[in-house]
Design a protein that fits this description.
The complex is a heterodimer. Chain A is α/β, with parallel strands linked by helices. Chain A is built from 15 helices and 17 strands. The two termini of chain A are about 40 Å apart. Helices cover about 40% and strands about 20% of the residues of chain B. Chain B has a four-stranded mixed beta sheet with strand order 3-2-1-4, with helices on one face. The chains are: A alpha/beta, B alpha+beta. The structure holds pyridoxal-5'-phosphate. Pyridoxal-5'-phosphate (PLP) binds next to helix 5 of chain A.
Chain lengths: ~425, ~150
């Protein structure tokens, strides 16, 4: 009673949220599921499951081509999804919203179509030391193709980027800044706004990898003034296989298409093809129709649940978990940035993260163990891997308590 | 927690904490590296073979309890075996941890790793050092990667 009264009025009703996620009814090895692998992928609310099956059950057809009723309804739903994404990002126009398979494909699109044609030998791309592989490898490939160089902003021991070194890295050869908005391995929230301003002051365009930010933050790409923003549907309560690239229209218009085929053309002869306008120029072939519709339902779900309320709740869980982990002897938290979101990466003395995850699983606790697709981060912190617990809207303080007792159980077993 | 005790038996926990033959072997005639990218396990095995008999096996590296204990147990089992016997034992061990056979007396202490069969993602941890020894014996120079 008293606990409920101290909650702010906009607080999340976690019980009501949990009731919307059918998978939370499951037991794992006879224990209630405690799903704390949300940074890898998030579970889906009933509204998203219904939107996807509703599409297939009621109005599914290919988009943009048919003149029959189903195709018109499908097209309306698919384009409606684009408008939902536009609102979610506060982009200026739906022309700037391109559906992709996910963050990875979005970044590859920019690498292939924006960076590759522009880069000269000895030009530079700046990324950070805490990028996910998907914001490293595409740039390395472009560097190999063009002779450009990759420069890396170092990370401090607490998991924050070295801002001094960042400023010094920018120079007249820098052609692009590619930056992770929120780190999936450490939880660090990067100060993207001032970093974008610094890059822009030198005329350098900026791509943000928002895979771990979109699930937690209210986003406004116009206020951020980023040039490109990428995120994945499966981490924002939507389906996998769908994601988004936002790009400023002026850039997208100047970029060549990156895949050719149907849907991205205006007219085709054997001599000449005229490309479709934005955003279709970048959406060759039949898209993931139900995926886009599911994504829109997910973003609607986040908005109606309250993005700020979700974020506050997750922050409470993260702080609650961090405070308890700090009390446990032999437990080390990797990533102690002042501003963190969603992720608790940790080690238990003398126990490999993979063993931690296996023991946790027997208690019904799902976490990730490994390098989190960020091997350079692991190397920087001198560990082969970490265990990572990551929270979402439906997690509770009880989940964190179960997590903490699972840590004690590991220590006992391997003690 | 009974399932866990099947996987993490006392012998495994002991070999994880105090791995046997955990050192470089100056006199080795064969060596190979193994890497399990899934969990970041890395192992280097050193083998001294004389007249088709394994005189000594040691290992170094960093890994989860299953891979460390398995490597440690392996070194104790292989010492004194012929190369042909070692290969046969690997076959039997592989069948055991993938659930294709039951523990037999020929396997000795290796039988404690039978619990791995209930954890398919851990089979690679249990077999990493064995794959590396096999690569060493076949003079393979590329590191073994299990994934
Ligand atoms: C920060 C970050 N960037 C990129 C990705 C890649 O996303 P996807 O696999 O959905 O393309 C992930 C997902 O793991 C991530 O956490």
């Amino acid at each position: 009673m008293s606990a409920a009264m101290t909650l702010p009025p906009t607080a999340l009703d976690v019980t009501a949220v949990r009731a919307q996620f059918p998978i939370l009814q499951r037991t794992i090895h006879g224990k209630p599921l405690v799903y704390l692998d949300n940074a890898a992928s998030v579970q889906k609310p009933q509204a998203v499951i219904d939107a996807i099956s509703g599409c297939y059950q009621q109005y599914y057809a290919n988009v943009h081509r048919g003149v029959h009723a189903l195709s018109e309804q499908s097209t309306a739903a698919y384009e409606g999804a684009r408008e939902t994404v536009r609102q979610f990002l506060n982009a200026a126009s739906t022309q700037e919203i391109i559906f992709t398979r996910g963050t990875t494909e979005a970044i590859n699109l920019v690498a292939a179509s924006f960076a590759r044609p522009r880069l000269q030998p000895d030009d530079e791309i700046v990324i950070s030391a805490i990028e996910h592989h998907s914001n490293i490898v595409p740039w390395q490939m472009v560097c190999q193709q063009t002779g450009a160089k990759l420069r890396v902003i170092p990370v401090l021991d607490n998991g924050e980027l070295d801002q001094q070194a960042f400023v010094e890295l920018l120079n007249e050869r820098t052609r692009l800044l590619g930056l992770i908005h929120v780190s999936n391995a450490l939880g660090t929230v990067n100060p993207v706004q001032p970093m974008i301003a610094q890059a822009h002051a030198r005329g350098i365009p900026v791509l943000l990898d928002g895979a771990q930010a979109a699930p937690h933050f209210s986003l406004d790409v116009q206020a951020l003034d980023c040039d490109f923003y990428a995120f994945s549907g499966h981490k924002t309560y939507g389906p996998s296989g769908i994601g988004v690239l936002y790009g400023k229209a002026e850039w997208l218009n100047a970029m060549p298409p990156w895949q050719g085929g149907g849907d991205m053309i205006r007219s085709v002869t054997f001599e000449h093809t005229e490309y479709a306008p934005l955003p279709y120029k970048f959406e060759a072939g039949t898209p993931h129709i139900a995926g886009a519709i599911g994504l829109a339902a997910a973003l609607d779900w986040m908005c109606s649940t309250g993005i700020q309320a979700i974020a506050d709740h997750e922050q409470d869980l993260l702080e609650y978990a961090t405070a308890q982990f700090r009390q446990i002897p032999g437990v080390r938290i990797i990533g102690q940035a002042a501003e963190k979101s969603g992720v608790l990466s940790f080690l238990i003395d003398g126990v490999h993260p993979h063993d931690i995850a296996t023991v946790f699983d027997q208690s019904g606790v799902a976490i990730r163990a490994g390098h989190h697709c960020a091997q350079p981060v692991m190397e920087r912190f001198g560990v082969p891997a970490t265990a990572r617990a990551s929270v979402a809207a439906y997690n509770t303080r009880e989940d964190i308590d179960t997590l903490v007792s699972a840590v004690y159980h590991v220590k006992e077993l391997f003690g | 927690m009974d399932n866990l005790r099947d996987l993490y038996q006392e012998v495994i926990l002991d070999h994880n904490k105090r791995p046997r033959n955990f050192r470089m072997l100056e006199s080795c005639t064969h060596r190979a590296d193994g890497h399990n990218p899934l969990c970041g396990d890395r192992v280097t095995v050193f083998v001294e073979v004389d007249d088709a008999v394994i005189k000594a096996v040691t290992f170094q590296g960093q890994g989860c309890a299953i891979s460390t204990a398995s490597a440690s147990l392996m070194t104790t089992m292989l010492t004194g075996k012929t190369v042909a016997e070692a290969e046969r034992l690997f076959g039997q061990f592989y069948d055991l941890v993938t659930g294709h056979s039951q523990p037999s007396s020929a396997m000795g202490k290796l039988a404690v790793l039978a619990g791995v069969r209930d954890y398919p993602s851990r089979v690679k941890c249990a077999t990493l050092a064995w794959h590396a020894v096999q690569a060493a014996l076949h003079n393979q120079t590329e590191p073994v990667v299990t994934e």
